User: Fold these one by one.
Assistant:
Number 1:
Amino acid sequence: MADFTMPALGADMETGKVVEWLVAPGARVKPGDVVAVVETHKGAIDVECFLDGVIDDLAPLGEDLPVGAVLARVRGVGEPAAPAPAAAPKAAPPLAAAPERAPVTASGAPPRIKVSPAARRRAQELGLDAERLQGSGTDGAVTLADVERPAPRPRQATVARRGFDPAQMRRAIAAAMARSKREIPHYYLTSTIDFAAASAWLAAYNRERDPAERLLPAPLLLKAAAKALTEVPQLNGFHVNGVYRAGPGIHIGWAIALRGGGLMAPAIHDADRKSLPELMLALRDLVQRARSGGLRSSELTDPTITVTSLGERGAESVLGVIYPPQVAIVGFGRIVERPWVVNGQVVARPLVTATLAADHRASDGHLGGQLLVAIDRALQAPEDL
Amino acid sequence: MTLTYREACKQAIRDALLADPRCFVMGEDVGKYGGCYAVTKGLLEEFGPQRIVDTPLAENGFTGLGIGAALAGLRPIVEIMTCNFSLLALDQIMNNAATLPHMTGGQFAVPLVIRMATGGGRQLAAQHSHSLEGWYAHIPGLKVLAPGTVEDARWMLAAALADPNPVLIFEHIVLYNTEGELDPAVTAVDIRHAKVRRPGGDLSLVTYGNSLPKCLAAAETLAAEGVDAEVIDLRVLRPLDMATVIASVARTRRVVIVDEGWKSGSISAEIAARLAEDALYELDAPVRRVCSREVPVPYAAHLEEAVLPRVDEIVATARSLLAPR
């Protein structure tokens, strides 16, 4: 028996409200299934459950519950049903209950299930029981990938989604950004990048293709940033309790402005490993879901860095505010034609201003500069992106 | 510019002799014979017998002379023909060179550099083929360098001579004949940091010396199978740059340590222990090691090959840490 608890969907979330259960009591759930819709200041979020078994004791709808509160219980397959709980099913779950740990098996019990240390830590963060997962690692151990692997399942019923409350979102942004500026000693770096090679490559790529398959500059900028982060991993992670911890992958939070005000930066997972067409699709999908609801909880909890691109109607550069506990934010301004010196001649070139705001507690400007240099280098070879 | 590791070592020594009149070379056969591995060939003719000093076969004696010269303000480069023979000088290295700065409360520095040939692979048998750098890395007061590239062979010596502590440089006998590219823009290297020689995301191969090219070759084989291995060149075995190793393991979560020394009580054991102490929760698989078989290195070529770490062994060990794909 394990608890399924209210996840923290970002540093600024304190409470959430279950507005819909997508599973019935007694349903079988697998790790990665979307089981509930939770309303937060970021709107209605599809919350994944990373437990395996039969779900029961669902929390009532519509109540504000703190992060960590028990939302449901999941019984492992084959595990006998728990004795009927004394509490009435409508009773409010205990607030901020400590997650219940399965008792350590005593000697004489079946052989210990192997879980890698990294997988064990991640499972704890996600509030799931790693010993219930199928291990794919060395000696059959449960690995990080086993813990993080989502098991996608088609949505059974579509329901009317509730939008976000702009005033509530404004308050949440205010809290997170004020905390960032209060706690994080930002430093800022700027580089102007010649976008001619990327532009030419993009034009040639798009000429061959139907409109639906064409690429915008955004995935190129995103991929260039992701590739650069593989070279400068010190900017891809979290500063927590005075210590920098590298992210488990390059999960780029892509800043999306919402109609009616507010913004979100949900994750594009493993952006360094995705092709440009995959990134284009991911961006379209993410923007659509951010604006209309349907983001997944892992997309809000996983970003290891934020990238913001102002697009063709934006300003020429942006000096971002870091979203804690991340340690950096990369910004791209509008691509503009300006005079530029090439081989001693002044010529008109498309240019983009790349900026970095980074946490000086976690890195120094020299390192930050390397990231911008790497982004520039990546954009000069768009065919390799 | 392409040059051999041997030539890089020689240019480094020549530079040092030209740059500093306090600098001289001392060791067995370094003068008339030109060095057992021909590193100092031609230097006697250029610099004369005051600067290129042939010594008797007495490692403890001439290493002690080197320490005395360093204490008196000179900058000796002592060559010990192979690290196996350095055991005869262990008393001087450990009880004098490594301890005098400490025992004099820092009043005396011992700016001594000792170069030694190390490692197997050239059929020189059990008294000339061992890798003892891991032992020396045990001793506080020493710095222990293991250049695995032409660049490090070319530039580590200057950094070692500039260091007030006794510095031991282990040059691998197989590397002397290898060629590498020298970046003209690089004119100095540090002797503090490990280096990522090949970035990768799927597992870390942590190594040094002649196991570096083996790991790079293994990484290419793995790349063909879709496995992206990161190769970390330790470069400096004391003090160990664990920050670089842990940062890599935190990215890849899997690590194979490749060390030509024997496994028991080796530098690979030290790295594995420190990963267990400081990076346990980064690991997604057990730490694995590829080391030499725990026997004296044999003379026969096929047996010697079987004893030393091999590329196919590194590849197989790496595969054992990854889910079948």
Note: The two ends of chain A are 46 Å apart (CA to CA).
Number 2:
Amino acid sequence: MIYDVVIVGVGSNGSTAAYFLAKRGLKTLLIESSRTPGDKCHGATEYVPGVIFNTRTELVDVMLRVIKKIPHLHPGDLGSAHFYHYVNNENKVVFKTYAVAPGKTGKEESYGVNNQDFVRTLAEEAVKAGAELKTGTTVVDVIREGDTIKGVVTETGEEIKAKLTFAADGRISTIAKKAGLLKKWDVNQCYYQYGEAWKFGSEEEMFDYVEHARHMFFGPTLTPPRPWGACTISLRPGGIVTVNAPTSWTPLSSMLSAKKNSRNVYIKNLYKIMEVRRMLRPCEGFPDRPFQRQSTFMPGPPLNKPYMNGLIICGDAGGVGGICGAGERAAQYVTPLLEREDVSEEALAGFVTARFPWGLRRDDSVSKKDKATRELSEVSPTRIVHWSAGAGYMEKYQCSLDEMVENMRLVAIPHVMGTPSPEKCGEFGYVEMGAWLIAVKINHLMNLYGPILQDPNMFPRILKWIQKNQQSFNQNRIFDHPF
Amino acid sequence: MSTLIPIPENFIEVDPERCTGCGNCVIICGAGVFEMKEKKAVVAHIERCLECGNCEIVCMPDAIRFRIPKGGTGIVYECG
């Protein structure tokens, strides 16, 4: 039997793609190496998975349907859960801010879920839509006939044939390698990620100790010589707290040349902060034996050629991240091609552009002064955020923070917070900058001693506010900010 | 908690002929899988592996080969 599509890798993108393809009546097979979909999914605990409200209603619908079926944290459960906490150099929380500007309307929805629950249930949706699921099966090779990929070979030697092979097998993509589209990721452009998870006795206990902070940034203290880095802590259902070391800004090559993996330094520093100690103390094994450790890397840059005859490379496997969105974009792109039975290299070539969120697509009509923006658009959405959060961008283009921000209007943010107003979202669905930007500015301003603040007049309002409240900061009082 | 379903094969292999003993894998591995023995990297604690694949990327002489473990084995994350 020949499938229309064989999808390798049942993560968020593979499952989403399968859902959309099967729904269109295409004969779709999902293959996963683990026993249960989601078992191998790990993003170094960095993301707060959630739902996006935007114009892509089909995607939102299925994500919402999945989330409603699994344990999730909802703002309603969390009270003032939209807070971000900021911690100063004396390890005190100096102020709390809303995660997204529309957060104040109370209309947006965002959810915290576990990757495993989410992916497993999403795969179930794909199966309900008609996809076939084969778990516990590792794919070891592709079936190649001339310059065309005709399917995949599993570890038992079984050949599974398909008109289109759809690789969504993650950063360590067997398919991309076997097809010859990826030799190896570049150590200069891959970023290290490390995270630990802790578990409270119950969700209630977690809320008691963590005090409704949904997502905390511990910036200035932790990341010299890069004060713009931040360590994040986020809450998950079931009383799980995840901690992310700010190594996301660190290319693998810099750790190699320093002969040191900085993850331990960051994590140790984090656990020295009184606020963090107080919060995590009740967790069993703290601070030496985390509930779970995760290590990974952000792949990149995106493959120049993520396709060949009969093959498409999607998501992290091709260096373009994105929860569910990348899978949906790829599925929407290949559906008409499969319907007219043309999955040749020529037909798939447009995927080079189509794989990116709309706002990040290359556009030759962009004026030359936007060169920097275009260059940014060639890296993955998540990468851009980390880049920009770092001052690498400013260093590279010798620009001010405001100029950087100007160039980042189309950039998606990885904190998945929703807004009911589509006009406030990018095609990718993430809120475009908004309060995150404010957070960046404030974070930078918090580093008044640092190299970031090139010109204090850039942010007159925020600066004025900070100056006005300087006394309160010094008294370590906690209060909201007006932005 | 992440658990490990025993893997019946060496899914990480170091080719001692190619290994230059640079130690990149030891530096980058977040799980302490590698050790240096007689100026060559060896897979000392494969049971600790978090399956991130960083080791293969940082191995400049391409001595390390990381494969996806056999179906249904290896690490199982609970809160990824």
Note: Chain A touches chain B through 52 residues (CB under 8 Å).
